[in-house]
Specification:
By secondary structure, this protein is of the alpha+beta class. The protein contains 9 helices and 7 strands. A hairpin with a 4-residue loop joins strand 6 and strand 7. The chain folds into 2 domains: 143 residues, no CATH class; 177 residues, 2-Layer Sandwich (Heat Shock Protein 90). It comes from Williamwhitmania taraxaci. This is Histidine kinase.
């Protein structure tokens, strides 16, 4: 529907603009400069030809996404295109005048052609300015809408995370397990308290930003796994493999932790003997690949929870089609969650 409206607006502006321009030139030529009546016809035909050239110009802009290019790259392309369109358009106009015997070919000269090309270049400059301005305004509005949607999704993700983590049952288990360590292993108890504090602080603060360094996310995931290990004890085995080069890349907050929480809550905790969770993070061909493999099986026809839905939405808004998320049964004993994100500094 939006594309239909944009096309309707585009063609309306095109027809009105070039018809008005051609009619104005025809009136000036016939009534002011006393040109032959056929001059009006050649002007209208030339105007139709300019409409065609400007439409081809617009298709090139769309096909090669000039609107998305940096300004310094766009300017050179636009100026060259304007000059070529103006030159071709005026040569066509002169050819029509000769064809309809309005002027003789001897009456034309390089200075006259140059002046005509400059005049048409000014017209095309205005055309380009209007076209790019409309698209820049539309893109700015779209980015603003996406930013608002991202903030809303981050808030929802924060609430979902807090519900999973900061609830009486979770805190009770953590504190109860840490309390039992106070006598047995005071150093481990202090570490547990620090990990719980860091994780809760991260949960509260992550909604303030759209991206965090992968290194920070990994630290919080380590704390979460250590706390869950205290609770599940020998029922939870885990491993974490991170390619060092990926630690400096930014990613949406709570991505890895959400996958780990989901794996433990819906996979390992459901198994009487527990299971394992393996986290592997690497970079391949400019893509950060995050894989979380855990014991368990996906239930058929089960609707994904709000956390996974938010994850998909956040990836789509942040990276469009450049990011992806999949959750599948790897085999009969384990589940594999995979997130692919562009490696952007």
């Amino acid at each position: 529907m939006k594309n239909d409206l944009n096309n309707k607006l585009y063609w309306t502006l095109q027809l009105v603009a070039w018809t008005t321009y051609s009619a104005f030139n025809a009136i000036i030529g016939v009534f002011v400069y006393k040109s032959k009546p056929l001059f009006a016809l050649t002007t209208l035909i030339a105007g139709a030809f300019m409409l065609l050239l400007s439409h081809i110009y617009r298709d090139i802009i769309k096909r090669y996404k000039w609107v998305s290019l940096p300004i310094y790259k766009t300017v050179g392309r636009v100026l060259l295109s304007i000059f070529l369109i103006a030159a071709i358009g005026q040569l066509m106009n002169f050819a029509l005048m000769v064809l309809f015997k309005i002027y003789r070919i001897e009456e034309f000269s390089i200075p006259i052609l140059a002046i005509s090309v400059v005049q048409m270049s000014i017209v095309m400059m205005l055309w380009s300015l209007i076209y790019f301005s409309i698209h820049y305004v539309q893109r700015y509005k779209a980015e603003e809408i996406n930013r608002w949607r991202m903030e809303a999704l981050l808030k929802e993700a924060e609430l979902a995370t807090l519900k999973a983590q900061i609830n009486p049952h979770f805190i009770f288990n953590c504190l109860n397990n840490i309390r039992s360590l106070v006598v047995e292993d005071q150093e481990k108890a202090r570490t547990g308290i620090t990990q719980l504090s860091d994780m809760l602080r991260y949960s509260f603060q992550h909604s303030q930003v759209e991206k965090v360094l992968l290194e920070k996310e990994v630290e919080v995931v380590k704390s979460f796994l250590q706390l869950e290990s205290i609770h599940l004890e020998e029922r939870l085995a885990h491993s974490l493999s991170v390619q060092p080069e990926t630690l400096g890349y930014p990613i949406p907050p709570m991505v890895i932790q959400l996958l780990v929480e989901n794996a433990i809550k819906h996979g390992i905790s459901k198994l009487p003997k527990g299971g394992y969770i393996n986290i592997d993070i690497k970079e391949r061909s400019g893509i950060i690949i995050i894989e979380v493999e855990n014991s368990g099986q996906l239930k058929e026809n089960k609707t994904p929870g709000i956390g996974l839905k938010n994850l998909r939405d956040r990836l789509r808004i942040s990276y469009s089609d450049a990011a992806s998320f999949t959750l599948v049964n790897k085999d009969e004993t384990c589940v594999l969650a995979t997130v692919k994100i562009p490696a952007q500094q």
